[in-house]
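# nightly structure sweep
# worker-07 picked up a monomer target from the shared queue
# config: single-sequence mode, recycle default, output format = structure tokens
# input follows
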Amino acid sequence: MPATILVINGPNLNNLGKRDASLYGTKTLADIQDDISTRASELNVAVKFFQSNHEGSIVDFIQETSSEADGVILNAGALTQVGYSILDALLDSGLPFIEVHLSNIHAREKFRQESVFAGKAVGQLAGFGPSGYIYALDYLASVVGN
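# output follows
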């Protein structure tokens, strides 16, 4: 049975393709998910996608699906600085997770440079655009194996 990776996206990521292309690129979330699915198939890894603009819904998703998963890729969006309940759900799950950001949060406004997840994540990828998801998937697939 292949490993399963949860790919979780937070607030406003459902609007990719309509947002500032200089920061977020032109791909929609569906485009990015298609790219992830293609790479997951090549790696013989299953992926399960979730997006919500609501922190509690993300917590519920992690709690409901973590027992079936082997790792998590998280782009918490604007919840990156305040999503302690998401962090707690991830820690409770015991799953390795990688934090992904399309833009380089460290080159943006000061308030965007902090992350409640970074200290507990396997790693953080910021500024690589949609490729960050693929890099995270490649790494998690190598760690969790099949």
